[in-house]
């Protein structure tokens, strides 16, 4: 059983150009409801996007989008391996591109920012960078073990209307 609170004021969930979203989620696994272990999870996810063109009216009409994404997940108890946090994109969270499941523990934080910009017609580019860490204690992350990632990407608008759909290719290094 769990509880999920979601606030989403983004203009588009796939190709967001402005607005923000915030999600808080609490889950409880218990042997009383047929789980194999007792554990508790508390997760927070915040995303905000700005259209820099609208902020600086001297630029051309094509959008330059800056986005920020922050994520934290703390878990307590006997957390099953399949529910542990992995560094990098996993599950519903797409944050810290460039990492895979080689770093895993019960707790995780990550921050990532992205700048999307027009290139030519239906092509757009993106620059992104982020940092994060996993730990066994939700409030004790060692800063010397922080992991960094960054990269660039190319987007092609398959559907170039209000509900955009893109083919994307990202290259990340860590």
Shape: globular
Which sequence of SSEs, written as H and E, runs from N to C?
A: EEEHEEEEEEE
Q: How many helical elements?
A: 1
Provide the residue-averaged pLDDT: 86
What would you call the structural class? mainly beta
Radius of gyration: 18 Å
Helix share bin: under 10%
Query: Strands of the biggest beta sheet: in what spatial order?
Result: 1-2-3-4-7-8-9-10
Beta-strand content = over 45%
Unreliable stretches covering 5 or more consecutive residues: none
**Largest sheet properties:** 8 strands, antiparallel
Explain what the structure shows:
The chain has 174 residues and is mainly beta. It is built from 1 helix and 10 strands, in the order βββαβββββββ. The strands form 2 sheets. The protein has an 8-stranded antiparallel beta sheet with strand order 1-2-3-4-7-8-9-10. Strand 9 (147-159) and strand 10 (165-173) form a beta hairpin. The mean pLDDT is 86.
How are the SSEs placed, and which strands pair?
Blueprint: E1 2-8, E2 19-29, E3 39-51, H1 52-55, E4 65-77, E5 85-86, E6 104-105, E7 107-120, E8 123-135, E9 147-159, E10 165-173
Antiparallel strand pairs: 1-2, 2-3, 3-4, 4-7, 5-6, 7-8, 8-9, 9-10
């Amino acid at each position: 059983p769990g509880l999920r609170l979601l606030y989403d004021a983004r203009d588009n969930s796939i190709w967001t150009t402005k607005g923000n979203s915030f999600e808080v989620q609490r889950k409880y696994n218990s042997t009383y409801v047929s789980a194999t272990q007792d554990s508790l999870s508390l997760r927070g996810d915040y995303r905000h996007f700005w259209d820099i063109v609208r902020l600086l009216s001297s630029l051309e009409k094509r959008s330059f989008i800056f986005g920020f994404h922050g994520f934290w997940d703390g878990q307590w108890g006997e957390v099953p391996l399949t529910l542990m946090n992995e560094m990098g994109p996993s599950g519903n969270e797409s944050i810290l591109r460039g990492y895979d499941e080689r770093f895993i523990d019960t707790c995780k934080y990550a921050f990532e920012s992205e700048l999307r910009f027009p290139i030519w017609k239906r092509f757009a580019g993106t620059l992104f960078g982020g940092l994060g860490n996993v730990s066994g204690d939700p409030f004790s992350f060692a800063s010397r073990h922080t992991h960094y990632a960054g990269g660039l990407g190319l987007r092609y608008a398959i559907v170039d209307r209000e509900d955009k759909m893109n083919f994307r290719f990202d290259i990340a290094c860590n």
